[in-house]
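Human: Here is a favour to ask of a fellow structure person. Comparing notes only helps if you start from a blank page. I am asking you to supply a protein in sequence and structure-token form. Write it directly below this note and I will take it from there.

Assistant:
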Amino acid sequence: MESKSLNDLQIITLVGKLLLTQRFDDLGQLARTDPRVLEQLAHTMKDGQPPFFFLAATALSKAGPIATPYLLEGLTHPQHPVRQLAAMALGDTGESSAIAALVEALNDPQEVVRQAAAFSLGKLRARDAVEALLYHLKDNSELVRNAAVKALGLIGDARALPALRHTASTDTEKVSGWAKDAIMKIQGTHQ
């Protein structure tokens, strides 16, 4: 798919059509080759209406490292759904440069943003985030505790084992179950 010959209005129309048909891989490819597509996706994520800001964040995650600055900016957006989507999308970029910002997002006042940040840190296998994730095993939100447990299991760092054992024996049934799974994953990688 070629976009270089299109004018700005045609780019907006093309991005809108591809978002509506959920052709995220195509949008990611276009965003890597045409800065106007990247800018339109970033603008839609920041200023668009539901469901477009969600679709744009998903497409940005397919653009790879080039989209990271826009997604990092989304973590500071005033609306929490945009922060949540940016945090989720950063985990899909594979960019370790997002780790520090995702650790900061673990302190967001909205639990869904903290949850998304924890999941993304797990996807990124962020060893530098282990201490922050361990702290969030005590979060008031079961959603966040669950995401932190899963992230720790994905990261696979043995430093998490004592806290995960405690969580497995004291938390809710759901979180305890995931903690046990995380323990098994970690122990399997260190044998």
Observations:
- The mean pLDDT is 93.
